[in-house]
Amino acid sequence: MDERFDVSRLLALRKLTRAVAGHLEGQLKAYLAVMTPLFNPRSLLGEYIRGESKRRIKGADKALLEIKGAFKALQRSSKFNLDEELRTPLDVFGASPEVNPKQYVYQAQANGTDKTVTVTSPLTWVLSYSGLGPGRVAELLRNQGNVVDPELQNCVMHYLVMQIIAAKQPGLATVLEGLRFHLSVGHMTAFASLPMIHIAAPITTVRPPDGIIIESTEISGAPVFEEVVDLEQLGGLRDPMKQQLMALVEAQSPELFEELAAS
After folding, report:
1. Which pLDDT band, with edges at 50, 70 and 90, does 52 fall under?
2. In sequence order, what DSSP letters do the residues of 24-63 get, joined into one string?
């Protein structure tokens, strides 16, 4: 067992992690609330959305082709039963973004014991439209059967629209970086090649040794686990703006830089 971890230390780290995650998630939600208009699909797809006016939006044709291409690629996945073609007008009702902590399935192994555990990364979130988080996708996948599920297909389409919006508006990522959050597009094994936008906090979480994970799940009676904050990384946080300004001071006036550094 890693000497840094035992059950009592895990409990202390988990309590700290939940406080940090709650604080940062609250900040992120506040930022996204202000940025909501940037996620409105109508500004990108215009007339291709049902109920929208016939006003032409520059770049809408290309955006639609990209969405259709991504949709076609998903048809090859055994995870989804999708129509042969994504037809317009699109029934896009999403407008407000929401975030949910990222989850993944992990096989813990220790002392001859194997255990499948659902792990939560509390400082990495999946961005989606309201009501269409990864949990909803998983539920629809479980219930889809062997026929096309219009609700699942619509959910998939919303993720593709969200991904295209993020790609077409690089300023989204730039703004979030300035606020210390990193935006990226990735794929989760449970959802095949469906693109999902991840937003990561300025610090990460870590997964303790497998023995601790298994012991924790046996105590709780549930095959779930939450990663804990990386304490060393938390202690090493730096202010990017301060570092940038200090570099400017050093370049402009080494004397003043030495004065500031000594204060």
Report:
1. low
2. HHHHHHHHHHHHGGGG-THHHHGGGBTT--S---TTHHHH
Contact between residue 185 and residue 198 where contact means Cβ atoms under 8 Å apart? yes
For residues 6-12, give the mean pLDDT: 87
Cα distance between residue 170 and residue 168, in whole Å: 6
Alpha-carbon distance of 191 to 90, in angstroms, equals 22
| pTM of this structure | 0.89
Q: State how far the Cα of 13 lies from the Cα of 72, in Å rounded to an integer.
A: 44
| The pLDDT of residue 2 is above 70 | no
Q: Where are the beta strands (DSSP E) in 111-258?
A: 113-129, 182-187, 195-200, 205-206, 224-226, 228-229
Contacts of 106 (CB under 8 A, 6+ apart): 116, 117, 118, 119, 207, 213, 225
Average pLDDT of span 122-127: 98
Side-chain half-sphere exposure of 15, counting CA atoms within 13 A: 5
End-to-end CA distance of the chain: 44
Range 10-38 burial, b when 16+ CB lie within 10 A, else e: beebbeebeebbeebbeebeeebeebeeb
What span, in angstroms and rounded, lies between the C-alpha atoms of 88 and 262? 64
- Angle 211-230-206 from CA coordinates, rounded to 5°: 40
Q: Is residue 3 very low, low, confident or very high in pLDDT (cuts 50, 70, 90)?
A: low
Helix (H, G, I), strand (E, B) or coil at 184: strand
Count Cβ atoms below 10 Å from residue 209 Cβ, excluding itself.
Answer: 14
Q: What is the pLDDT of residue 43?
A: 84
Given a contact cutoff of 8 angstroms between Cβ atoms, the answer to whether 110 and 209 are in contact is yes
Specify the pLDDT at position 56.
78
